[in-house]
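Before relying on records like the one below, remember that each one covers exactly one chain. Contacts with other chains, cofactors or solvent are not represented anywhere in the record.
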Amino acid sequence: MATKGGTHHQKRLAASSYARVSGRKDYTFTKKSSPGGHKAAEAIPLGILLRDHVSLADGMREAKKVIKRGDVMVDGRPVRDEAFPVGIMDKVTIVPADKSYEIGIVSKKLAAREVGKENAVSKICKITSKRTVDGGKTMITTHDGRNFAGDNHYKVCDSVVYDFKTRKLVKTLKFQAGAKCLVTSGYHRGKTAKLVEIIERKGSMDAEAKLAGDGEEFVTLAKYLFVIE
């Protein structure tokens, strides 16, 4: 008997609250994210972003028309799939409106904030893995699914600045004391603070990190941090 594939439907009540799905009790279904660089539970379908988050479309039909024309760019490239997943730190540009947005976290949920043209030409990516491939070359993978050739200069949990025009990494933001970090998960999700120290734990326990910001100090898991400065 053949294996049943994944469903193309997404019920609103079952959708991740992280993505701010509206009208949970008014409608049964919502748009489901296509496979992409971000997990479905950590992303907003592009059509829903235009309709519900930045109010540049009155409905999904209008959003689809704008997207199918190639008028919406994600990280410097036109996207024509209304279900394309956009996630944290992605840059979305709506060409006809001459507006650009960055996906961040507000009140512990994904949200879009408008950014200037000078900030819409690059994005910050977190290094999530590093490996050696054939020929002894080093490859790094970032949080949005991109892969780059690297070297020992790059470490897991560091962040890199990706330039959309050159398609290259132009800067490294080290995961070290003094770095400004965004907390992407856990109780403190959405907070930005300076990293004070990394606290290693014995055995298989995850390392923790002590941070300070806005007159408070708190501790969270080190893997929840995203270096932004």
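The longest helix spans residues 60-68.
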